[in-house]
Design goal:
The chain has about 475 residues and is an all-alpha fold. It is built from 20 helices and no strands. It has helices at about 5-40, 45-50, 60-70, 75-85, 85-105, 110-135, 145-170, 175-180, 180-195, 210-230, 235-260, 275-280, 280-305, 310-325, 330-355, 365-390, 400-430, 440-460, 470-475, 475-480. The longest helix has about 35 residues, at about 5-40.
Length: about 475
């Protein structure tokens, strides 16, 4: 081996280590952010008693957080380009952590809602800007591992959040569900300062204020409509009105972005097949199924099986272990089979495992339930990582910021859409029986419908070329060797 080859190998190894370290640093912050969104719901009754309000009034804290986050997500890519991704990411962690402290110290509902809004603003910038940092620091060949590292918080936090939140609320107090973010946030900021290099675009251009207002308002109305549909309150008119407003504003934003010279969001990313397929159409449908499952499983075990939240949590931990278990083999599987085969076959496994969950009963052997949940977790993790990696496989440097922002916006929609679809099926099934609370039979309909969405979306990936994303997965190289 020549000196030049040795030097090149050392540079590649150093680049790989740097990409992995940066991805791990970003993952720590992502975990804090997503954990917060899932842990809070468990403490709402205790918080209501502390503030002297009805428990139903506490839902405004979750709604304000979500809507504030929706309003600021479209701005994230431009801010990262204008002021530097590292600086904006650091600021977002600081804002989120500081707001978490004041949420935990709140003495009234109004005070809590105010700090939840600030927390949502920090959260809005964290995911898209963090992803931009990872994309800038990883080569194509390192992208699968890097995306896998920043994906695990989205897979694990929704599973362990409710369990951890129940434990903290039961044995400590609701304040600690927010104060737990302080050490994680401080650690995350320290890691960013130590390991993440500053990278700033030469010319971010002027802020497209019209595009920001239209896209922020459109996304906010869409998410508000989906959130209201989940609660099943107030009838259909408010939901339809907000949904229509969201669609109209989103169409106006799209036309604006296509017409101006320097738009806030560059929609050319949708001209890249791998990005369009993994974020729109098949990708959105697949994420609906993926995101509906963690919502349905705790309800199945508590309402359908009659288990306590702690007992239901033990089943969810098996699901969580399945999510983690796939991480070690994600890269080899994508290299061997390629993105198309993995998304189709693994997607079908994930979909049918969701359907199978609908046929579980309290009499089902515990070993079978554990095996099914572990399989569902494995396949969910694989599908999620493959989707998130393929989305950026063919995205050029000039499209990264807009692509990351667009991906975050669509993931927010698909996340709430998954919950909305599952909740709607449960509510309709219960209403047809003349009841308000779902029973075991109602969950069967929900799991079957969600699984069917997963089957259809998986088959849509057959439209991808056999070598889609090969430069990232290494699939073509593997076949030649």
């Amino acid at each position: 081996m020549t000196t030049a080859e040795t030097s090149e190998n050392r540079q590649e190894a150093a680049s790989g280590r740097q990409a992995k370290i940066v991805a791990l640093v970003v993952a720590v912050s992502f975990f804090m952010q997503i954990l917060d969104g899932t842990i809070v719901a468990t403490s709402l009754p205790q918080m209501a008693a502390s503030f002297g309000v009805r428990p139903v009034s506490m839902s405004i804290g979750i709604t304000v957080y979500m809507l504030t986050m929706a309003a600021f997500i479209p701005l994230s890519g431009w801010l990262g380009d204008r002021f530097g991704a590292r600086r904006v990411f650091l600021m977002s962690i600081g804002v989120f952590t500081g707001a978490s402290l004041f949420c935990g110290l709140s003495g009234s509902l109004m005070e809590f809602v105010l700090w939840r809004a600030v927390q949502g603003a920090g959260s809005a910038l964290m995911t898209p800007v963090g992803r931009i940092i990872v994309l800038k620091n990883a080569r194509k060949s390192e992208l699968v591992q890097a995306i896998a590292l920043i994906t695990w918080p989205a897979l694990t936090a929704p599973v362990i959040g409710p369990v951890l939140g129940s434990f903290i609320t039961t044995y400590a107090s609701w304040h600690w569900n927010f104060l737990i973010n302080i050490p994680i946030g401080v650690l995350g900021m320290g890691l960013v300062l130590r390991f993440v290099p500053e990278q700033r675009e030469a010319d971010a251009g002027r802020l497209d204020l019209v595009g920001f207002v239209l896209s922020a308002a459109g996304l906010t109305f869409l998410l508000a409509a989906l959130e209201l549909s989940v609660k099943w309150e107030g009838g259909l008119l408010p939901v339809i009105s907000m949904l229509a407003a969201g669609i109209v504003l989103s169409v106006m934003a799209t036309r604006h972005f296509l017409a101006v010279d320097n738009p806030l969001l560059d929609l050319s990313a949708f001209g890249v097949q791998t990005f369009a397929m993994s974020t729109l159409s098949a990708g959105t449908a697949c994420r609906v199924a993926i995101n509906a499952t963690p919502f349905l499983l705790p309800l199945l075990f508590q309402l359908g099986f009659g288990l306590s939240s702690i007992a239901a949590g033990t089943y969810l931990l098996v699901y969580f272990l399945g999510n983690l278990g796939m991480k070690t083999v994600t890269t080899p599987l994508l290299r061997f089979f390629g993105f198309r085969t993995v998304l189709v076959l693994n997607g079908l496994i994930a979909a049918f495992s969701i359907v199978a969950c609908g046929f579980l009963t309290p009499d089902t052997p515990q070993f079978f339930i554990h095996a099914l949940l572990f399989l569902a977790g494995l396949s969910r993790s694989m599908e999620f990582t493959a989707l998130n990696t393929l989305a950026f496989a063919d995205i050029g440097p000039a499209q990264r910021s807009s692509a990351s922002t667009l991906s975050s916006m669509l993931q927010q929609v698909s996340m709430l859409l998954g919950v909305a679809v599952a909740a709607a099926v449960l509510n309709i099934a219960a209403a047809l029986r003349g009841a308000e609370t779902p029973v075991l039979a109602d969950f069967r309909w929900a799991f079957v419908l969600v699984g069917a969405i997963g089957v259809i979306s998986s088959l849509r990936f057959l439209q991808l070329p056999a070598e889609a994303g090969a430069e990232v997965s290494g699939h073509r190289k593997f076949q030649k060797n």
